[in-house]
Amino acid sequence: MKTKILPLLFAFLLNLSCSSNADPISEDDTAQILHDITVVTSSYTAIYEYNILRTDNVINNTDLTAAYGLSPAFTYLHTTANKLTFYTLAGNSFDIFQKEIGNSNIRVFDNICKEALDETHYFARNSDNKIVQLGVGVSTTGAPGPELFVKFFDPSTSTCTRIPVGNGFLASQRGALIFEETLYMAYQDFETDLYVLAQIDLTAEERVGDIRFEKPYTIAIKEGAELHAFFEDDVYQVYDANSFALISEGFLNDGGVLGGEGLLDTNFRDDEILVFISYQQPSEISTGPAVMDLKTGDLIQGNNSFLFDLRRALIDDLQYEIFFTSFAVNLETGAVVCGFLKAGQQKGGVVYTTFDGDILKVVEVEGIPGRIVLQ
Questions:
Q1: Which residue would you say has higher pLDDT here, 214 or 34?
Q2: Which among 12, 52, 49, 48 is positioned nearest to 35, based on CA atoms?
Q3: CA 195 and chain centroid, separation
Q4: Between residues 4 and 139, which one has the greater pLDDT?
Q5: What residues have CB less than 8 Å from 324, skipping those under 6 apart?
């Protein structure tokens, strides 16, 4: 493993073709962009945790398979700012391996909250303090149709508390999102056909309210304070995240970028929102991050040749072919971190950059970079 810090002037000149009007990044801006990050990488035989610190170029890595027996065949990974939680299908539920980022504190739970005969578990999720499982079963409230539920797993007793959320159909894998200690669930009501956003307090373990719409929506949560709702007919509404009161309503022609029913895991900067766009295929890049102006619906960063120019610059610097595997973006700080695969090998790296394409730092790692957590 080796680390490379490229001089900012060189990075600026190298990317001048894609950011000719950009100013060089100052040292203060660079310090802000260079977050401490955690990267989870994987190979056929191992899972690695890399903690890369911006100060003194410190890199700590752990082979989670060798150290703790974590199987490379886990089903999916959910991350918070403080925890890595690996879920693996097991019997009629999930096995869980949970690790605090940056230390050796781990918890392992087998086959949590087993399914009853009339239940189907969709998936499990977690906050920093709670592990929950979402699914559907026979109605326990007398309401017609299948009943969506949440089960709260108690690690100390390995028992589960089950609460009904509503009767209907979850909006696929984008039907649930946890922000801090609040769970939001998006579903269509069985009896009324209305599209519902339900709010569940994970600390109190109770459903606290909902908003109901007549049409499908995409909703993004801004700092736990606002719910931004986007609809296919270009209606754009903002609600208070706690009271559900309507704050504003207008129109936003987003060109279909914010389409798809459910909840969008993203972040904001003033009147701008992080989105992911698809590139015409065939191409070396399928999707990538971009920034949308919520006043106009225009893509204002990341929608040009940004990733393609960055890829070419990395190939020139590293002297081998690479393909991007994952992305993490913080609009407030301007940080863009991209994971990449070394072509034909079970290894790669991460590159710290900006939407102007400035290469700030490259770190090579064992395994293929997956989830990236910006601290």
A1: 214
A2: 52
A3: 23
A4: 139
A5: 285, 288, 307, 311, 338, 339, 340, 341
- pLDDT tier at 24 (50, 70, 90 boundaries)? low
Non-local (6+) Cβ contacts of 102 within 8 A are 38, 51, 60
- The residues, any chain, with a CB within 8 Å of residue 68's CB and separated by 6 or more, are 97, 99, 106
Examine the pLDDT at 210 and tell me if it is beyond 70: yes
Those residues with Cβ within 8 angstroms of residue 154's Cβ, 6 or more apart along the chain or in another chain: 160, 161
